[in-house]
Specification:
Layout lengths: L12 E3 L1 H7 L3 E5 L9 H15 L5 E4 L3 H12 L4 E5 L5 H9 L3 E4 L4 H15 L2 E2 L6 H7 L1 H9 L6 E5 L4 H13 L6 E6 L4 H8 L22 H7 L4 E6 L1 H15 L12 H11 L2 H7 L10 E5 L7 H11 L2
Parallel strand pairs: 2-10, 3-4, 3-6, 4-5, 7-8, 7-10, 8-9
Antiparallel strand pairs: 1-2
Helix pairs in contact: 2-3, 2-6, 6-8, 7-8, 11-12
């Protein structure tokens, strides 16, 4: 996949001395916050928008989103000169609404959680002849996300000791697993992180089948799908996949600590990351990876650890202060 295909860019892979010191192994940060829309979503969403509009006559595209998938859809649609409608749950930060409007998208708010917004998006697509861009559950989205692994393969001298990522509906996870298979790295452990209250994937792993959460109670609303996609659950059956959860407080602590690494460029370069991204970062900051090593679920010593810094398109300093007030109350 070329670097222009799907509108994404090749993102930096940075070594974190501080996190490496904490872990006792080299930690690399795949900075998806550097994407044009501020998150990894532009890889898969952009790829799907491009392919759907090339193959069908469309009156426009519609996407249900907690923020980042909508941003990616709006951006790609603008590049393709297509109308875009983004349906958001009411929990979406106002800054996301404004960013979507700045991209030229029509914004509609429906329901409290993503599942509600998705039901409305499907209804609107049917009545208005719009092409549905699913935020995570589509093979084209997974294919686009798999480009992350191809970039890692081109950058690293050897395969990673493990890859850590956040899971919402499972689109990024599916793309990473697809990419690992494609580059011959299927043996690399993948640690899937969620926050308590937005942990549909972990619940499915524990139950042995897909689980629908009764509600999303985590402040990490970008992880807020009540049910993971079926393909993510199928991948979870592999012995290389580990699922775990952290609290909102642990995720918040992680994104605050992460600011020490990138504090100079906070708002301008989108390195202030979302709470959803903090779920993955907390795997190092909370000592979870060391615990998994002690339990024998990850090797010790561990080869280079790759953290997928999934993004910060839905956060700014004001939103961080709001999260601090809500979570630390």
């Amino acid at each position: 996949m070329s670097k222009q295909e799907g509108f994404h860019v090749v993102t930096p892979l940075l070594e974190s001395v501080g996190m490496s010191k904490r872990l006792g192994s080299t930690v690399y940060l795949k900075m998806e916050s550097s994407q044009p829309t501020g998150s990894f979503k532009i890889r898969g969403i952009g790829y799907m928008c491009q392919n759907v509009t090339n193959s069908t006559k469309s009156a426009g595209v519609i996407c249900s989103s907690g923020g980042n998938a909508g941003m990616a859809t709006a951006y790609a649609a603008r590049k393709l000169n297509l109308p875009a409608t983004i349906v958001l749950p009411s929990t979406t930060p106002h800054l996301v609404v404004q960013k979507l409007k700045d991209q030229g998208a029509t914004v509609k708010v429906a329901g409290k959680v993503w599942d509600d917004a998705n039901a409305e998006a499907l209804r609107m697509a049917e009545s208005k002849g719009l092409s549905v861009i699913h935020p995570f559950n589509h093979p084209l989205v997974w294919k686009g996300h798999s480009s992350i692994v191809h970039e890692l393969k081109a950058s690293l001298a050897s395969k990673p000791g493990a890859i850590v990522l956040s899971v919402g509906g499972g689109g990024l996870f599916c793309g990473v697993m697809e990419g690992l298979d494609e580059v011959g790295w299927a043996s690399v452990p993948v640690l899937c992180m969620e926050t308590v209250g937005a942990d549909c994937f972990n619940a499915a792993v524990k139950a042995g089948d897909l689980v629908t959460l009764p509600d999303i109670t985590s402040q990490a609303t970008c992880l807020g799908a009540k049910t993971a996609c079926r393909q993510a659950f199928e991948y979870s059956k592999r012995s290389t996949v580990i699922s775990d959860v952290v609290t909102d407080l642990q995720a918040l602590d992680a994104i605050e600590l992460f600011l020490d690494f990138v504090c100079t460029y906070v708002d301008e370069e989108r390195v202030l990351v979302e709470l959803a991204c903090g779920a993955a970062l907390a795997a190092v900051y909370s000592g979870l990876i060391q615990r998994l090593q002690e339990e024998g679920r990850l090797p010790k010593p561990l080869g280079p650890l790759v953290m997928l810094v999934c993004g910060g398109g839905s956060v700014n300093l004001a939103q961080l202060q709001h999260l601090q007030a809500v979570i630390r109350k």
